[in-house]
Design a protein that fits this description.
single chain, 19% strand, elongated, 33% helix
Length: 130
């Protein structure tokens, strides 16, 4: 697939309310790739907020990924984008899964011990706050 076609197709995608996907040509850095920025609503996940049900939003969180598109058709492109969405959702799930009564997060993706327990020794560093 041509990069400009992939950019157009990704920019036509819709996911959950509050989510945006913004693709751009990334071929100056990596041949046959696009860079996709996902912006999504998120809650503050500090342990002390868990008992209250995480009442405050962060103002938005984001993640950026590079996706190789030169070797795929439209269905494979959508699959690759969805895999990145699933990575984001997994990151959030690891952050918010808590053990009562202490609200310990055994797989917290921002904590070295949580990364080790999950088997993610390099860490999950594709995320930020918008």
């Amino acid at each position: 697939m041509e990069v400009r076609s992939a950019v157009r197709l990704i920019n036509q995608l819709q996911y959950k309310p509050g989510w945006t996907l913004d693709a751009e040509d990334n071929t100056k850095r990596f041949e046959g790739t696009v860079k996709v920025r996902f912006v999504f609503p998120a809650y503050h996940s500090e342990r002390e907020l868990a008992e209250e049900g995480y009442p405050t939003m962060t103002g938005g969180s984001w993640a950026e990924f590079r996706i190789v598109v030169s070797d795929c058709d439209d269905v494979e492109l959508y699959r690759r984008v969805l895999r990145k969405i699933m990575e984001i959702e997994l990151h959030e799930a690891r952050e918010f899964l808590r053990v009562l009564p202490t609200y310990w997060a055994p797989f917290h993706p921002h904590r070295v011990d949580g990364m080790k327990r999950w088997g993610d020794l390099e860490g999950d560093l594709s995320y930020g706050i918008a």
